[in-house]
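A sample copied in:

***
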Amino acid sequence: MNIHEYQGKEILKKYGVTIQRGIVADTPDSAIQAAKELQAETGTKWFVVKSQIHAGGRGKGKVKETGSHGVVLAKSITEVPDKVKAILGGTLVTHQTGPEGKKVNKVLIAEDVYYPGESEPKEYYMSILLDRSKACPVIMASTEGGMNIEEVAETHPEKIIKEWIDPAIGLQAFQARKIAFALGWEGNAFKEGVKFIGSLYNAYLGLDASMFEINPVLKTSDNRILAVDAKVNLDDNALYRHKDLAELRDITEEDPLEVEAGKAGLNYVKLDGNVGCMVNGAGLAMATMDIIKLSGGEPANFLDVGGGANAETVEAGFRIILKDPNVKAILINIFGGIVRCDRVANGVVEAYKKIGDIHVPIIVRLQGTNAEEGAKIIEQSGLKVFSAIVLKDAAQRVKEVLA
């Protein structure tokens, strides 16, 4: 589960991570009030207006309606309303949102931390995530903060610092110092940096997070280390331990079909293709998507109905897939292990009749327990549903209906 920058920063603050302070607002008037409160608290004279969407690249992204960038600077309180109006309610397009962009419902009014001083402010990159190949968390850092880390990894891999953490003993003090040394921090920045890394790792564990990305981490002109941004991804499977964090979910930032599928207990991810697929089992779903591509189509979604597929789940899956206007055909691929194929076939027929007026061809491939009985039910239904037993036949059917 993704959360907004302002939510991530507030959580990190509770774990002792130093952050760029800010106050969230959803109207120009509340933004002015936020700026006044922030000035009274921090003494800042300039304010950073930051769009709050679940996507990176906001600073380079632009609002369709106004041409404003997603992160802008207001050099006085009087400038704040106009800066906010140019962003709030608009559609922000970044390299991560795609051309359709995302609507900005909130902005963060943040303090200016790039003030002049004894040295130039410098940006760094830092993240913590699970390295599945080594079965342990890894801290990644770089002196090239504020940039696309994928580009840095491709062009200057030597600038990516990695430190793997043994989960049995946790982050050791020498490891935090090692990262701080590698980033070139000295004096007070070094001390604050070591503390920053330790607090960040404690937050990662405490939240059951799947990823933290702080880009940039800033060394200020007076050698403080703080998080200017915070991308926090929480593990959905651990939210039962964090009821307060589950409440931070913003469904307006998620695909409506994925939200609907979640309520129906389905694992659904929308894609850009033309063939909807409904499968029981994640591995089989991946294989089905491959076979769709080999047949000349493109998968329109990933949809796993689970091992206990029945008429209700099949109907819910149908309804969700059919709401995608790009879908030109549906491939149902069920392996009858826990669930019998004849039961699934009856569910498909019932769902088809209940939904009615389905204009796209449906290919049903059943294999496993009572597969032959299931195929007969499909063939004798009189509906525009094509049956297949082996995956090759299903792929050929897809190819035929797309021709």
About this structure: The longest helix spans residues 187-206. The CA atoms of residues 49 and 102 lie 17 Å apart.
